[in-house]
Amino acid sequence: MTERHPSSDRARRAEPADGDRLPPARFAYDRHTWKEIAHLLANLPMSLLGFVYVVTMLFTGAGLTVTVVGFPLLAAGLMGARQLGKLERARARALLGVRVDEPSPIRLRGSRNGFFAQLWLMLKDPVGWRTVLYDFIRLPWGVLTFAITLASLFVLWPVLPFIARGLANADRAMVRGLLSPSDELERRIAELESDRGVVVDTAAADLRRIERDLHDGAQARLVNLAMGLGLAKEKLLEDPDFAASMIAEAHGEVKLALQELRDLARGIHPAVLTDRGLDAALSSVATRCTVPVKVTVDLDGRPAAAIEGIAYFTVSELLQNVSKHSGARTASVEVWRTDDRLLLQVWDDGHGGARLDGGTGMRGLADRLGAVDGLFVIDSPPGGPTTVTAELPWRDREPERG
After folding, report:
1. Which of 132, 257, 337, 379 is 20 to 30 A from 116 (CA-CA)?
2. Listing from the earlier edge strand, what are the strands of the sheet with 293-298?
3. Which long-range contacts (CB under 8 A, 24 or more apart) does 180-183 make?
4. Could you give the number of structural domains in the chain?
5. Each residue of 287-334: pLDDT tens digit?
6. Distance CA 83, CA 86 (A)
């Protein structure tokens, strides 16, 4: 069972979707032909709707630009054009099998931008203007395709599947050319905006965990330590033996508090990772695993600190899963670099069955990797073994400033 995190497979999505692979046209009426005929007959009412809206919006908005309401009206018209484009993409998906991504929304960010800044963002929206162009040129095409298709239904019935395919292919080209996101950069912006939310949520969760650990752990011990030392101070002259026992107990509390602070610091960013890199840090993590772990790190340098930290915590959490859930007898960790990617693989001979939605934190790991344009793949058939492969972008480490 192999599971690939869907949001992080972006560099490998060049293949066309299954819906775009249509059987060749033939002298027969299959479901694809009937859908194309329905689309072509619907072109006339849809093109009339779009043309009337665009002409009304352009003439009204442009004519009123000499007043205070002209530009806001034009901006509102462009936002409405976006909705018409969304409707046309849905129609193309349903009837033509065209798989096009939805363009990224306009990010107005509420009160962070003033009214005029938001207005300017809407007025220069390329998606809205391309939809306006699409609706403007569609009227003659809608009339033509409607007339040809309707006439062919009664006159050219045997060859209508070929006619419908040719006209529908022109529609597919228009949709892809004018209604799809303008380029890969726009799609990446939308993905990165989504990933930014994941990063913010992850950071907030980490801060809450640190706060909880400090409050329930080291802070509580230090409060008890202060109270114990205060009591020992009061009893120092009256009952030296009791005071000595209180000091000894406080000494033990100090050791426990220091250990908890060390564990907490290791959970934030371990010193061994900063000082000695992934090889030493992962070897240290492996010693805490309940099964023997072989660690192999083949790197000719150190990646950027952020990438190094993500790689460390990914392996750390995967080895915790090996200890708690896998039932494995042995495990291994391999880390290497291929071109501009850092790859790591954690393997164990446990009972398998690991999944992204299995409740073992795999989804959180996958989201964290996806947020930095990484890749996360689980291969864990029932009965094992389990292999988890993670891939991160390699960024060179900046030299330290003295």
Report:
1. 132
2. 2-4, 375-379, 386-393, 341-348, 331-338, 293-298
3. 180/100, 180/101, 180/103, 181/100, 181/101, 181/102, 181/103, 181/104, 181/127, 182/103, 182/126, 182/127, 182/130
4. 3
5. 888 899 999 999 888 888 888 888 888 888 898 888 888 888 999 999
6. 5
Indicate if 257 and 279 belong to the same structural domain.
Answer: no
pLDDT at position 126: 84
Instruction: State mean pLDDT over 144-149.
Output: 94
Residue position matching structure tokens 């793949």:
377
Task: Tell me the longest C-alpha to C-alpha distance in the chain.
Answer: 116
Phi, psi for residue 9 in degrees, rounded to 5:
-105, 40
First to last CA, the chain: 49
For residue 260, give Cα distances in angstroms to 4, 56, 172, 187, 309.
36, 69, 62, 44, 21
Residues 247-265 have a mean pLDDT of 69
- 48-62, 83-97, 250-264, 293-307: range with lowest mean pLDDT: 250-264
- Check pLDDT > 70 for residue 215: no
* Three-class DSSP category at 119: helix
d(CA 92, CA 95): 5
Question: Is 4 contained in some domain?
Answer: no
* CA 136 from centre of chain: 35
Between helix 362-370 and helix 184-213 the angle, nearest 10°, is 130
- Asked which of 78-92, 235-249, 253-267, 309-323 is least confident by mean pLDDT, the reply is 253-267
Whether residue 153 is found in the same domain as residue 197: no
Question: What's the pLDDT score for residue 4?
Answer: 53
Contacts (Cβ under 8 Å, ≥6 apart) of 373? 8, 10, 393
Whether residue 212 sits in one domain with residue 176: no
pLDDT per residue as tens digits for the range 353-394 = 888 776 657 887 887 787 777 888 888 888 889 999 999 888
Assess whether 223 and 148 both reside in one domain: no
Q: What is the domain extent for residue 87? A: 18-182
**Residue among 33, 30, 41, 38 at smallest CA distance from 166:** 33
* Mean pLDDT for the chain overall: 78
pLDDT score at 393? 87
Residue 202 belongs to a domain with what CATH number?
Answer: 1.20.5
Q: At which of 147, 163, 182 does a domain end?
A: 182
Q: Give residue 272's identity as a one-letter amino acid code.
A: V
Which of residues 152, 182, 212 is at a domain's end?
Answer: 182
